[in-house]
Specification:
6-stranded parallel β-sheet, Gfo/Idh/MocA_Oxidoreductases, Gfo/Idh/MocA family oxidoreductase, GFO_IDH_MocA-like_dom
Length: 350
């Protein structure tokens, strides 16, 4: 197979501004089909990309010419549609968070294994140039022992970006399951696991304070502890009203790394010796005007499927990042520190 024929299920903003654009730019991909419940939306998208249109994803999955699908749907549909696609013999790139429960995530991974198909979760933070360089510096021992960190992901809210605005499913508890923590926080749990190893304990405050007429969270602050004993904070918010913040700072024995924290440099290394190194790297992708750069997610997924390689963010990796979010939810509800149950299959309170 030299060309990957893909179907995109869901034609909202994430499909239009990420998946479809990046599939179209990849010379090894043919956008074969698109699907959406709204006939006018799917027809417009199908005409734009010269693809077949469907309003029923099950009909799209019956098409034997489609090799892989992107699942770009509300959170509560990630698991059932992904499992159906895997069972239909399709490789799957699923948007984050991969599921709304540990059980759903396990079922998705089981379907991928049983069908011998690739399942990748669309976390993009591992592909950011500053994050990859930071990992190299940390793993090389350049910073010495890592003491602490802070990581933040916030913006004004999905109504600023979603194709449906304030009427978006993001604000519907039954469809979204979780708000800013699932939309933004899960990206940062995946990043911190990538940079510093597994997260083992979580304490959190998760609240709805900025948005009206919704039960989903819009502000969260968590304290995380890694298996190596590093402690730090994670903030996820839909209340950063003027602009977004997608920064991370790593505090080490020999210096500090500032990732996406400086307006001019993607990565700034400040050493104990007084030396500062500024790295001019490809900037992180954002939802703000002019911020749409290559996420590398689509290219990586395509390469893995065509060449039979395991993706960087497998379903198992996606589940581990979800585990941290589930533990944060439990911590907020129980008002206790919660141990992240990676192998036990559930979060267990102390």
């Amino acid at each position: 197979m030299t060309t990957l024929r893909v179907g995109v299920i869901g034609c909202g903003s994430i499909a239009r501004k990420r998946h479809l654009l990046e599939y179209e730019a990849n010379e090894n991909v043919e956008i074969a089909a698109v699907c959406d419940l709204l006939p006018e939306r799917v027809q417009e998208t199908a005409e734009q990309y010269g693809a077949a249109s469907y309003t029923d994803y099950e009909e799209l999955l019956k098409n034997p010419d489609i090799d892989a699908v992107s699942v770009c749907l509300p959170n509560y549909l990630h698991a059932p549609v992904t499992i159906a696609a895997l069972n239909a013999g399709k490789h799957v790139l699923c948007e984050k968070p991969m599921a709304t429960s540990k059980e759903e995530a396990e079922a998705m991974n089981k379907a991928a294994e049983e069908n011998g198909k690739t399942l990748m979760i669309a976390h993009n933070q591992r592909f950011v140039a500053s994050h990859q360089k930071a990992k190299q510096l940390i793993d090389s021992g350049e910073l010495g022992k890592i003491y602490s960190f802070r990581t933040t992901f916030g913006h004004p809210g999905p109504e600023q970006w979603s194709i449906d605005g304030r009427n978006s499913w993001f604000f519907d508890k039954e469809k979204a399951f979780i708000g800013a923590m699932g939309d933004l926080g899960v990206h940062k749990t995946d990043l911190m696991r990538y940079l510093l190893g597994e997260i083992t304990e979580v304490g959190s405050f998760i609240d709805t304070s900025a948005k009206e007429n919704t039960e989903v969270d819009d502000n969260a602050v968590c304290i995380l502890k890694t298996e190596k004993g590093v402690i730090g904070t994670l903030a996820a918010s839909w209340s950063y009203v003027s602009s977004g913040d997608n920064s991370t700072v790593i505090y080490g024995e020999k210096g500090i790394l500032r990732l996406e924290d400086d307006p001019n440099y993607s990565l700034v290394a400040q050493y104990k010796t007084g030396e500062t190194v500024n790295y001019e790297l490809e900037r992180i992708q954002s939802n703000e005007k002019g911020g749409q750069t290559q996420s590398h997610v689509i290219d990586h997924f395509t390469d893995c499927v065509l060449n039979g390689k395991a993706p960087l963010i497998t379903g198992e990796e996606g589940m581990k990042s979800l585990d941290v979010i589930l533990a944060a939810i439990e911590s907020n509800e129980s008002k206790q520190i919660v141990k992240v149950g990676v192998s036990e299959g559930k979060a267990v309170t102390n």
